[in-house]
Amino acid sequence: MERLDKFLCGSGAGTRSQVKDILKAGRVTVDGNPEKDGSRKIDPAVHTVTLDGQPLGGKRRMVVMLNKPAGYVTATEDAAEKTVMELLPEAWRHMDLRPVGRLDKATEGLLLFTNDGAFANRLMHPSHEVEKCYLTWVQGEDVGEAVEYLRYPMEIDGYMTRGAEVDIISLLPGGAELAITIHEGRNRQVRKMCAAVGLRVTKLRRVREGSVELGDLPAGKWRSLTAEEIASFDR
Ligand code: URA
Fold this sequence. Notes:
Layout lengths: L1 E2 H7 L5 H9 L3 E3 L2 E2 L6 E2 L6 E3 L2 E2 L7 E6 L29 E3 L7 E7 L2 H8 L7 E8 L3 H8 L4 E2 L2 E2 L4 E8 L2 E8 L6 H8 L3 E10 L2 E2 L8 E3 L2 H6 L3
Parallel strand pairs: 9-15
Antiparallel strand pairs: 1-4, 2-3, 2-5, 5-6, 7-9, 7-17, 8-9, 10-14, 10-15, 11-12, 13-14, 15-16
The structure holds uracil.
Uracil binds next to α5.
């Protein structure tokens, strides 16, 4: 049994104060009867709760993506830094969303969140080898030669990586914009790989995980993944 107001928050109906207003406005029914008392105890397995006539199914599974801007840490809480959680809608605060993997504070781009622990574990397990593609702006002496080395396996923190796929998007004064695709997700892997071949990363943006693309989602914005995008990780 749980409190009706808590159940409504957990179902994504709104924040605690929004749920108070929703209840006061008589928009909620329990087993067909209007209910305004948020402290009323319900059992989601037994009672049917509706909001505006639509049944609520309890904590629904959510998978969302954020276009993370630089300057935010990938953590659910941090005493000193702004966290990626602050960019998600307030109404989702009670949905137990957690980042799947991490992007460094200075890295931007595609970051997934879910409240489905099994899905997150599957995605992050090394055996799953979800490809990740990063637009990488680098500075260095001989970019052409460095790119050749990036394409071979190398040892990072005691692990051999698979060779990266690297495309030169454009040559810039003293550097280049690269598209680097890796098959693992080790801590700061792209920066470490670039440093190992003499390239300094000036900007890093993840643009793809598996077949899910960041696309034109603006920085700081989020969207839910489609059912097809979620299913693509199981293929
Ligand atoms: N590789 C990095 O170096 N940093 C990231 O944030 C992600 C991949």
